[in-house]
């Protein structure tokens, strides 16, 4: 869709910002989700924030597309 409208190959750009969730945090996130696939994003965020030094929001997790 983005390519046909604007001629770009990628719809989303990172703008060289550091990701809010590191690769290690993504691995922890995958463990949490694999335990219960039907859990809500709010519950996953709450459980993940136990392990993180800097808490993240639900929107950050949805944007990471694990």
List how many beta strands DSSP finds.
0
Structural class: mainly alpha
Mean pLDDT: 76
Poorly predicted spans: none
What is the topological layout?
Layout: H1 2-6, H2 23-35, H3 41-51, H4 58-64
How is this structure best summarized?
The chain is mostly helical and 66 residues long. It has helices at 2-6, 23-35, 41-51, 58-64. Helix 2 (23-35) packs across helix 3 (41-51).
Task: Tell me about this structure.
This protein is mainly α and 66 residues long. It has a domain at 21-66. 55% of the residues lie in helices and 0% in strands. The protein contains 4 helices and no strands. Helix 2 (23-35) packs across helix 3 (41-51). The longest helix is centred in the middle third of the chain and has 13 residues, at 23-35. The mean pLDDT is 76.
């Amino acid at each position: 869709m983005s390519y046909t409208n604007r001629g770009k190959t990628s719809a989303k750009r990172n703008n060289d910002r550091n990701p809010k969730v590191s690769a290690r945090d993504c691995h922890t996130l995958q463990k949490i989700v694999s335990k219960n696939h039907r859990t809500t994003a709010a519950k996953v965020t709450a459980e993940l924030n136990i392990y993180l030094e800097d808490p993240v929001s639900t929107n950050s997790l949805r944007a990471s597309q694990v």
